[in-house]
Design goal:
The protein is mostly helical. Helix content is 58%, strand content 0%.
C-alpha cells in the first residue's frame, strides 16, 4: 500500500520511546532557521548541505502528492462513479 512519509516531526511513538529517527525536511529547515536567526555570519556548509537534502526530499514528497492527487484519487473517483456511489460534494466529478 502506498503511504506518505512522516513529513513534519517524525513518528510520535518513536519520539516518546526515545528511538532515533531520520531527520525530516521540516526538522532540517527548522534547525537551519534556529541557528541562523540571530547570526551575522553566512550559512555554514552543514546548513547548505542540509538545505540541499531537505529540498531534494521535499521534491520527492511533492511528486508523490501530485501522483496521489492526479492519478490515485482520480481513479478512485472513477471507480465510485462506475459503482453507482452517490455524488458527494467536492469529489471532482461533474454530475
Amino acid at each position: 500500500m502506498w503511504r506518505l512519509p512522516v513529513v513534519e516531526y517524525g513518528d510520535p511513538i518513536k519520539s516518546k520511546l526515545d528511538i532515533d529517527q531520520l531527520q525530516t525536511p521540516m526538522g532540517r529547515l527548522g534547525i537551519i532557521s534556529y541557528e541562523q536567526k540571530y547570526s551575522t555570519s553566512s550559512p555554514t556548509q552543514t546548513h547548505k548541505d542540509s538545505y540541499a537534502i531537505a529540498k531534494s526530499e521535499i521534491d520527492v514528497i511533492k511528486k508523490q502528492l501530485e501522483t496521489l492527487y492526479n492519478v490515485d484519487v482520480k481513479q478512485l473517483e472513477e471507480q465510485l462513479v462506475k459503482a453507482g456511489a452517490p455524488y458527494t460534494p467536492g469529489r471532482g466529478m461533474d454530475h
